[in-house]
Amino acid sequence: MSGPENRPSPLSMLRSSRVPPRQTVRGAPPPFQSAVPQRGWSDALILPDTGILISAGRQRATLHKVAAHYKGRILVARLVADEINRQADPANRVDPLLRSAAAYARTGFVGAPEVETVDLIQDDVPLFDQVVAQLRNMPGSAEAHSAAHGGEAAVLAIAKRLISKGRRVVVLSNDGGAAKVAASLAVPLKHFGQVLRELVCAGTIDAPEAIGIFRHAETVSGVPSFARPSDQLYFECNSVAGSCSRCS
After folding, report:
1. FRET partner for 246 with CA separation of 20 to 30 A, picked from 32, 53, 81, 200?
2. pLDDT tens profile 73-88
3. pTM for this model (two decimals)
C-alpha cells in the first residue's frame, strides 16, 4: 500500500516548470452525460476524485456500500490520497463535517488493502498540466492553494492513459469543470448522484434511501445545480423483467 505521507509530492516532482497558457474547451458534449449506462459497467476501473470520496465518507454505511460495489476496481490517484490525508489531519483547519468525512474516506478507501494507489508517470505530465490550466481558468474557479485542482487533473490524466491502452475506465467527480474537461477528452465521468443510481440498480439501496444519502452528502461535497437530482424519481431503476430502458 501507500508509503509514508511525507514522501515528496508527485505534484512537485512531475509538474513542469510552469502551467501552460489558458486552454479552452470547445465543442464538448454536456458534462455528466457520458456513454456509461445507469447501472454502470461491471468491468470498468474506477478513478474517484477527492470530492467523491468525501461524499461517500459523509456516512460510514454509505462508504462501505460504495467500496463493496466497486471492490477490486478502485484506483486512487496519489494526489487524491494526499488531499484526503490533508483534510483528515486534525492539525489543518477544515470544517468538522469535512474532516470527519475525509477521515472515513482515508480508512475506507485510501488506507484499504484492496484499493490500489496509483502515481502519475512522466508521460502523464503534459495532459496533467493542460487540465490544471483548464480547471484553474474555469469561470468561478478559486485557487485556494498551490495544489488546487491537482487531484482532478491527476485522475483525468491517469484515466486517459489507461483508456489509450484499451482499458475501460470511469472517473467519479462532482466537479462541473472536471466534467467539462472529461467530456472534451472522451473520458466517461459520473457524479455522486449517478453513483447512487448504480447502487439502486444493483439492489444495494432503494430510491428513497438514495435521495437521503445524496442530500446528506451535499453538506460536504455538492454537485453543480444544473446536474443536481431534484427528487427520488431520478434514482428509480426502471428494470422490468431484466430489461431497463435507461440501460439498454
Report:
1. 53
2. 999 999 999 999 999 9
3. 0.84
